[in-house]
Amino acid sequence: MSTQGWLVDRQARVRAFDRRHPWVMDTLVAVPIVLFSIPNLIESPLSAAIATLVVLPPLYWRRRYPFPAFLVTATIELIQGLLDVRVGAGVILLVMLFGVASRASWRALAWASGISLALLVTEIYLVNPVPVTQSRLITLLLSIGTLGAAIASGVAVRTRRAYLIALEDRAARLEVERDQRARLAVAEERARVAREMHDIVGHHVSVIVGLADGGAAVATSRAEQTAEPLRLIGDTGRQALSELRRVLGVLRERDADPQLSPQPGIDDLDQLLPSVRAAGLPVTYSTSGELHTLGRGVQLAVYRIVQEALTNTLKHAGRGAAADVTLAACDGEVRVRVRDDGRGKPAAPSHGLLGMRERAAMYGGVVTAGPAERGWLVDVVLREPS
Fold first, then answer.
1. Is 323 helix (H, G, I), strand (E, B) or coil?
2. Quick one: pLDDT at residue 336?
3. Which residues are bridge partners to 327 per DSSP?
4. What span, in angstroms and rounded, lies between the C-alpha atoms of 74 and 97?
5. Is the dihedral of CA 192, 196, 201, 206 positive or negative?
6. In this predicted structure, what is the pLDDT of residue 164?
7. Cα three-residue angle 293-297-298, rounded to 5 degrees
8. How far is residue 278's CA from residue 310's CA, in Å, rounded to a whole number?
9. % helix / strand / coil in the chain, to the nearest 5?
10. How many Cα atoms sit within 13 Å of 317 on the Cβ side?
11. What three-state secondary structure class fits 113?
12. What are the tens digits of pLDDT across the range 298-310?
């Protein structure tokens, strides 16, 4: 580390220590004052001791109240001059003037400078007149120079403090700008990924929809029974393509103006279940309670849970299985039961089951999933937010 860096580091440590323990620095200032008063304490112990005890307290509250501390010290200085007791109030007055210049307002500094000048003139010419042989004017000019040095030092400290604050503000603004640039870069990357996903996945889904529509048209012309499943494949593909555009549209730029549609709810199960039945899984569906009064968030959770449970049934229940979906709302709770009578082996914990647990946890719910007496049971209890 260079000498300059070492000095800057030590200065920063001293400032930090002073902020944590300001009384230490104030005491270091008070010690020379007491030492300066020792001769007076020897000559007149009582009066000098009282004067010293009176002049020291303003040192400890000059940081918070610089101008009042200066006024108190100036008053003490004047009284000591009248009583001809010298215990260092003049030195403390310089310290107070420095504090006003570095911490108080410019108006307070102007008042403090005027009071200090008036106090000097009063002491040099009236209270304890300087002998003519010592030239009162020279004494006054030297004293004014000392006051000016204290004021200049305080103003320099004030300027440096303002400069440091400005640097900190600039650093904070630069950090905010850096974060904003990072967020913009992330948004641009997300938009790029969204465009690529839309182009790749959308293309293949569109091909599937086209093939399904073509197959349905051929099957219809031949009066074959496969026409209806092929039409359902096409409708499902178009729905998937629509949801793909809606989801990826959120990742695009704002000016892309994605067409957002409402999230599915319980009413949308009437569109979901026919596609599941067409895929070969008979499903019975029953409800009880005021389900339509549930919030949109709870309805979305119910829809996704039923969707995932039926998807797992299609995957693992085996041929010839059937499923039963029951929804019940009562006393601020919603119960979702999806049960099948399949003979497939239970699947290992999947992302779908984890998603069910996460959705249920959002509403203080519990998910029970496992083998039933015959088949597989998913039992979920959700609590309606109060």
1. strand
2. 93
3. 287, 336
4. 10
5. positive
6. 80
7. 60
8. 13
9. 70, 10, 20
10. 27
11. helix
12. 888 899 899 888 8
Using the structure block, give the residue that is written with the tokens 């005890």: 53
Q: What is the dihedral of CA 47, 52, 57, 62, to 10 degrees?
A: 130
CB neighbours of 354 closer than 8 A, spacing ≥ 6? none
Q: Are 90 and 84 in contact (CB under 8 A)?
A: no
Asked if residue 60 lies in contact with residue 26, where contact means CB atoms within 8 angstroms, the answer is yes
Region of 165 please: left (phi>0), alpha (psi -120 to 50) or beta. Answer: alpha
Q: How is residue 233 written in tokens?
A: 């494949």
φ, ψ (nearest 5 deg) of residue 242 = -65, -45
The whole-number pLDDT of residue 255 equals 45
Single pTM value for the model:
0.41
Q: Residue 131: is its pLDDT beyond 70?
A: no
**What's at 204, amino acid-wise?**
H
Distance CA 115, CA 42 (A): 32
Work out the percent of the chain whose per-residue pLDDT is above 70: 70
Predicted pLDDT of residue 258: 45
Mean pLDDT of 157-186: 82
